[in-house]
Design brief:
2 copies of one chain form a homodimer. Chain A is an alpha+beta fold and 238 residues long. Chain A has helices spanning 9-22, 35-42, 46-58, 77-84, 111-116, 164-172, 190-195; strands at residues 62-65, 69-72, 87-88, 98-108, 124-134, 137-147, 176-187, 203-213, 218-226, 232-237. A 6-stranded antiparallel sheet of chain A has the order 4-5-6-9-8-7. In chain A, strands 1-2 form a two-stranded antiparallel ribbon. The first copy, chain A, is globular and about 65 Å long. Chain A binds a DNA duplex (19 and 19 nucleotides) through helix 3.
DNA sequence: GAGTGGTCTAGACCACGCA
DNA sequence: GCGTGGTCTAGACCACTCT
């Protein structure tokens, strides 16, 4: 009497397609079958397939191009960075970062990390620490926590690519679709001074992010400390 | 050969409805006619009206309630603050602020303000300065610039309500639907110390916002300087 | 011209809120 | 039980892309 027990057809189609994309049936950049073909295959009307595809496009899992077809979204460097790396030049141009000074190690999750990722205490995680550069200048330090269970053998991929989310998608079929961030102002401490060329006590923007996969799992916890003296952190609300 | 010259019907319906809502034909909180009635009235199919209404609901201009009807959204204190005031308690609860120490004056726009609002140089604007409190503690200073032409007589409404966007909607039929923000970390200066109970040099989160109305006009420029020692600034990306 | 996604229509039935 | 929005279908035509 309290749990709905009712799921619209288009939402079931949505999930079925997500699963097949995640399973690699269609690779990023490849075209899906046409709406008509999918409708026949799934035994629903073309309008229902359309509604599911529209929702997938909203979640940026697919790209739709009129006259051409429907394509599995590529989380290429540009798309993924433009979407989640938000440091922006004064003229409004989104900056594209490079990485350096990178380390990855495997350890047990601290309780705060386990809580943020909704994992049992003490499970194995990877911890990545790296410095981000824009125009050769260090602008941010990132500490990234990933459950080992979701990313087996991640430490074999070192050096890690610039765009981690493209790696998650390509190697682990994990599609990041949204992120919750908590922002705070803080001052530079000794560790910050070492990696960023700022003075002790300089203001830093601290961003604490939890990234969610298309299936709702909390996949990544990330703490960034950013020097916003030359770049700003741009967001849009609707 | 290059400008499209083609506008989908549903998007024309969207604009017609926005205009009628802005003109006050239906007041916030009131119900619109049913989909069928609107379809008859406008001479389009019910499905086309639905598509326009769905888009309006996405832009939060209206509320749809199954079994009841479609209502003009009320930008009440809760809704508007929950949407655009993003300071959040450690437990994830969105804070609801109060205002104090408020001043409003009319003056000419500075060139940076005119540029941010895409106005001619030197037009008249209102400048509001106020302190925001959460649980009786000062947490942010706001400086707000509004074009006088959009908000004639605004200084007559003092003291201003806690939720400005509700006032914009109620008194001026201006519906804020989105905002672009630039965030930076900064340190407290003398003016900040006076209004916020922080020390000189304490870290502050500076938020520079341009708010956009449903018709795309840039309606408000706002600079907030926030003490994030007890609250965090929460955002979600999709 | 053929094939794709995008728009538009008309009509049926379902879930919800309320009297 | 009635009226509302929500879902689903089937079919037509339009705009875009490529050959």
């Amino acid at each position: 009497m309290d749990s709905p027990q009712y799921r619209p057809l288009y939402s079931q189609v949505y999930e079925a397609l997500v699963r097949r994309i995640a399973d690699g049936e269609w690779q990023p950049g490849q075209a899906l079958p046409s709406e008509q073909a999918l409708a026949m295959q799934l035994g629903v009307s073309q309008g229902t397939v359309r509604k599911a595809l529209d929702a997938l496009a909203l979640d940026k899992v697919i790209d739709r191009r009129q006259g051409k077809g429907t394509y599995v979204a590529e989380l290429t460097q540009e798309r993924s960075l433009f979407r989640f790396f938000r440091l922006t030049r004064p003229d409004g141009q989104r900056a594209v970062p490079t990485s350096g000074d990178e380390s990855i190690k495997r350890r047990h999750a601290r309780s705060s990390e386990a809580k943020a990722l909704e994992l049992p205490e003490g499970v194995d995680v990877f911890e990545i620490i790296r410095t981000r550069f824009v125009d050769e200048r260090p602008v941010a330090i990132e500490r990234i926590i990933l459950p080992e269970a979701y990313f087996p053998g991640l430490d074999q991929h070192s050096p890690l690519p610039n765009a981690l989310y493209a790696l998650y998608q390509r190697e682990y079929r994990i599609n990041i679709v949204s992120a919750n961030e908590k922002l705070r102002a803080d001052v530079a401490r000794r560790d910050d001074v070492k990696r960023l060329s700022v003075e002790l006590g300089a203001p830093l923007l601290q961003v604490e992010r939890v990234a969610l996969a298309v299936d709702g799992r909390r996949v990544e916890w990330r703490l960034s400390r950013c020097d916003t003296s030359t770049l700003s952190y741009d967001v849009t609300f609707t």
